[in-house]
């Protein structure tokens, strides 16, 4: 093989290598951009939900405070429980908005973050059902108690708050679940083998 022919082969190999590197870098950048968009949208959904929860809490605390001071009987206890209950809701929403976790930068981290929030919402929905059940229990117990107004007022409050939270967590879950399905757009460019992950391209 002549020196000239050898140099030509080296140029071809170098050119091929540069093309491969360029495509790989482009593919990595494209995947990172898609992951970033995916995570930002999930964070936006959660942030919006926390504002809704915070707004509900503030409204209940204001009306609860006014109602507690101007009403009597079971209505007074109803407003009292609404006010106390939503102090917790406001604290949860405020802490979630103020102390947001950094967005994950890897596919694995993105999937874990998505699954964690979905599982948390399902767990919360279970708690919401328990709140509603407790509300019915208090209302039933009130019929056999000398503290009828207290138990009835608290029971009605638990029914209202539990019902709202069940609706809230349900909407949040299905919204985030639908968003989670869009991860397929990112996975379209990723191939999994036994011990590795690769980026695929179609031309």
From TrEMBL:
Keywords noted in UniProt: Membrane, Transmembrane, Transmembrane helix
Record-annotated membrane-spanning stretches: 12-29, 49-71, 158-176
Protein known as: Uncharacterized protein
InterPro entries in UniProt: DUF6992
One Pfam family matching this protein: DUF6992
